[in-house]
Amino acid sequence: KLDVRTRGLTVLFDIVKTYGDQFEAHWWKDLFQVLFRIFDNMKLKDNGDDNDFPDRLAIKSEWLNTTCNHALYALTDVFSQYFAVVSPLLLNDLFAQLQWCIQQDNEQLARSGISCLENLVLSNGSKFNAESWDSLCQCLHDVFSSTTPSQLLVWKPVHGHKVDSRPPSVDPSLLLEIDGDIGYPPPRHHSHRLGNSQEPASQAEQQKLFSVLAVKCIVQLELIQSIDNIVFYPATSKREDAETLARAQNNNVHKSPGELSGKGDRGMYTSLSLHHLYTLLDCLLQAHRFAKNFNSNGEQRNLLWKSGFIGNAKPNLLKQETQSLSCCLRIMFRLYFDKTRADCWKEIEERLLPLCSEVISYFLTLSSEAHSDAWTNVLLLLFTQLEKLDETRLRSFSGPIYPLLCQLWCVDVRPEVCSVLRNLFLKIGTVYGISVVSNGVGGGERGAQEL
Q1: How far apart (Å, rounded) are the C-alpha atoms in residues 424 and 418?
Q2: Cβ atoms of residues 399 and 376 within 8 Å
Q3: Burial class (CB in 10 A: 0-12, 13-18, 19+), 229
Q4: Best CA proximity match to 440, nearest among 259, 240, 255, 262
Q5: Average per-residue pLDDT in the chain?
Q6: Distances, alpha carbon 128 to alpha carbons 17, 21, 26, 134, in Å
Q7: Helices in 147-273 by DSSP H: which ranges?
Q8: How far is residue 287's CA from residue 140's CA, in Å, rounded to a whole number?
């Protein structure tokens, strides 16, 4: 009974939180082994008989969504409360448990696993040692790799299964919520969704696969946001994007001295080594390039659309494509401006310069207005950071990217992007002595007229 399980868990964890400071080390090990068994029933192989036992599937889904979900948050909460004692004994075991939850094709449990992992790191990351960070980054790397929805790029309908010439209709109440971006807002589906008993087996299998792929897309997007939250602290990047956009709209892309100081580091950036940040960057770039490949494959997207992948919308991964890249650029520029990591500046530059060229080159190939608009924050971030470079660095960057920057004037870009691009050109002009900038803001009268 669900109510009995829920009450039992609540009382158990209340006892642990109240008296945990009196526990011996081996008591903690025994306790967590018992708690981990809550998930063991879900780890049993179904021997390929799921379709023959829909009731068992329903029970499994209900257990994942209720008891497992409840236990996961409570486990993480207890772990954080007694971190100093429990971490040396069980941190890797907890990472493994969270990783398992994230990798299940269950949207709610996966989201909860990511949320718990993020909260665990933000609450205790300052106490992590090098081995703890190694374990975390390896966990994130493995999760990113295992949840990449690779079949999106190669899926084909079952032979003999007719693909509609037009996308299927959906419940009108959902139309406002489906914008085509897979996982944002999340599609309304249920993991291990049971096919209608009247559906052909192939149709039911297709719907089950689509459900699994949709969950993987959601997980990837959640992981990207979680890395940004861990490195920079939740809401920090969104706030900075909003401030940059507001300044660009007001043609004032320069921060005042008071703004430069910021509100201090609350994320884990300073606790992460260069090696760990590189691991996270590799994950982000992997997600970005997968999404870019999918978004560029119009034929495959049309095929999925007509087969009813996410309803009455042509699927895309625009948020995964742009948010992963934005986070990547933030980390790399942060490293490039960080005086405490001056020994790695050359290495960062060798990674950052080709990426900047790749970003602009790809944007120039976009033909869809919606796709181009989705890149507004990426371009604002990139050009704002480039404009902050000192003259020596900007000279190094402007050579390879200047022809691409010029090409941007031949395509439609948002007025906000034009604003920051103008200031970048003025800054490049001062580096090469071809324009005049006064007061560090915009162009002087002479320089502006000459340009």
Answers
A1: 10
A2: no
A3: buried
A4: 255
A5: 85
A6: 22, 20, 22, 10
A7: 201-232, 236-249, 257-260
A8: 12
Cα–Cα distance, 225 to 106 (Å, whole number): 19
The residue whose two tokens read 């979900």 is: 69
pTM, rounded to two decimals: 0.86
The helix/strand/coil state of 160 is: coil
Q: Are 137 and 98 in contact (CB under 8 A)?
A: no
State how far the Cα of 334 lies from the Cα of 54, in Å rounded to an integer: 51
Predicted confidence (pLDDT) at residue 192 exceeds the cutoff of 50: no
pLDDT tens profile 10-32: 999 999 999 999 999 999 999 99
Task: Quote the pLDDT of residue 449.
Answer: 43
Q: What is the amino acid identity at position 368?
A: S
Q: Give the C-alpha separation, 76 to 157, whole Å.
A: 42
Name the residue type at position 65: N
Residue with tokens 């087969």: 307
The residue among 105, 110, 68, 102 whose CA lies nearest residue 192 is 105
- Give 300's contacts (C-beta < 8 A, 6+ positions apart): 152, 153, 155, 294
In 3D space, the residue among 173, 214, 221, 219 whose CA is nearest the CA of residue 191 turns out to be 214
Kind plus residue range of the DSSP H or E element containing 276:
helix 274-296
Reported confidence tier of residue 190, pLDDT bands at 50, 70, 90: very low
Say what the pLDDT of residue 157 is: 87
Instruction: For the chain, give the number of residues.
Output: 451
The confidence band for 285, taking pLDDT boundaries of 50, 70 and 90, is very high
* Angle between helical axes of 391-407 and 345-365 (0-180°, round to 10): 10
